[in-house]
Amino acid sequence: MGLPMAKNIVTKWQELFVWNRTIERTKELEMLGAKVCDSKKILAEQVDILITMVTAGEDVEDIIFGLDGVVSWLK
Asked: How far is C-alpha 3 from the geometric centre of its chain's CA atoms?
């Protein structure tokens, strides 16, 4: 679900920053013009709106509130 949504955003809006725990999954979006971030921190520092597409609740908690969680760097 995340890839089709992200493709729609990157082809219709000006900028899209992406990060994925599996970097290979960002390649198609990068070819469409998305800016791939090397870390959650870099991503969080770049965006005004953050959308997550993660299947497991504990993974969402980890990405947002865990060690190096994005909540620390959001504007």
From this structure: 11
DSSP 38: S
Residue 4 to residue 11: CA distance in whole angstroms: 11
Return the structure tokens found at 67: 């060690």
**CA distance readout (Å), 16 to 32, 35, 41, 70:** 10, 6, 15, 16
Which amino acid, residue 3? L
Q: What pLDDT score was predicted for residue 1?
A: 66
Confidence band, pLDDT 50/70/90 cuts, at residue 21: confident
> Which pLDDT band holds residue 29 (cuts at 50, 70, 90)?
very high
